[in-house]
Amino acid sequence: MSLKDRKVINIGTVSELTGLSIRQIRYYEERQLIFPERTKGGTRKYSFSDVEKLMDIANKMEDGWQSHEIRKMEEKKLKDPKLRHKMIEGQLNAAFGMKNYNYSK
């Protein structure tokens, strides 16, 4: 895993870096546009890749895109098996708080 993909940034810092409110960031997670990891205590952790993705999502929303349109576009990108694998791992982690879960084992 590259340093850019390590999930080490808390939601408050992500909010400061992106200019998005914590509520906006949580909304994007609820809409399944972003998949932070969760610590045992439930704290969300993001990577620098997530920060870039959040900025892209926010720009698209500002341009009038709907969240379901963004999600469909992301799904098309995930035809690549490696990217799909990474997204599924992120979803499992977000849903169950499973850090670094590898579903292919």
TrEMBL record:
<dbReference type="InterPro" id="IPR047057">
    <property type="entry name" value="MerR_fam"/>
</dbReference>
<dbReference type="InterPro" id="IPR009061">
    <property type="entry name" value="DNA-bd_dom_put_sf"/>
</dbReference>
<dbReference type="GO" id="GO:0003700">
    <property type="term" value="F:DNA-binding transcription factor activity"/>
</dbReference>
<keyword id="KW-0805">Transcription regulation</keyword>
<dbReference type="Pfam" id="PF13411">
    <property type="entry name" value="MerR_1"/>
</dbReference>
<keyword id="KW-0678">Repressor</keyword>
<dbReference type="InterPro" id="IPR000551">
    <property type="entry name" value="MerR-type_HTH_dom"/>
</dbReference>
<protein>
    <submittedName>
        <fullName>MerR family transcriptional regulator</fullName>
    </submittedName>
</protein>
<feature type="domain" description="HTH merR-type">
    <location>
        <begin position="8"/>
        <end position="76"/>
    </location>
</feature>
<keyword id="KW-0238">DNA-binding</keyword>
<dbReference type="GO" id="GO:0003677">
    <property type="term" value="F:DNA binding"/>
</dbReference>
<keyword id="KW-0804">Transcription</keyword>
